[in-house]
Design brief:
There is one protein chain. By secondary structure, this protein is of the alpha+beta class. The protein has 4 helices and 7 strands. The chain has a 4-stranded antiparallel β-sheet with strand order 1-2-3-4, with helices on both faces. A 3-stranded antiparallel β-sheet has the order 5-7-6, with helices on one face. The termini are far apart. The mean pLDDT is 92.
């Protein structure tokens, strides 16, 4: 198991992980071709880290500076340490992180709380693609 920089040849696998985690789970903001273009762009910009196990990408995290835009894990690999490894790597690289978690996604919110994030504010979804209520969560490296 390892964390590594994603490359463009990972695109099909990462899209499969994304779609397994989003389709049928509520509102979807983009069509698949739009997802593919957006994912290719962030991969080429160096903003995607992936977690591998048994030689295959099983989870990925998209981060731009302090903002985590996405964290997805293959459904069959949830709870195996991929998300924790990716968030841990991001926390090692930078002293502050922030993200928006969907209000209805209590599993994600609990995951982030376990990793030191705290709730900062709530919105009715006016600022996200899906238009669903969300929660701004932040993490800062402890001083000392």
């Amino acid at each position: 198991m390892s964390v590594a920089q994603a490359h463009i040849w990972h695109l099909p696998r990462l899209l499969g992980i994304l779609w397994a985690g989003t389709r049928g789970q509520g509102p979807v903001a983009r069509r698949r071709d739009e997802d593919a273009r957006a994912m290719a762009k962030v991969i080429l910009q160096g903003k995607v880290q992936l977690w591998r196990s048994e030689g295959r990408a099983r989870a990925f995290l998209v981060r731009d500076g302090v903002r985590i835009h996405a964290l997805y894990t293959c459904p069959d690999w949830r709870g195996q340490g991929g998300g924790a490894a990716l968030v841990g790597r991001a926390q090692d690289q930078i002293g502050k992180l922030e993200l928006y978690a969907a209000e209805h996604n209590s599993g994600a919110r609990q995951f982030y709380l376990r990793h030191g994030f705290r709730e900062v504010s709530r919105s009715h979804g006016a600022g996200n693609d899906e238009g669903i209520p969300d929660i701004l969560m932040t993490w800062e490296r402890p001083m000392g």
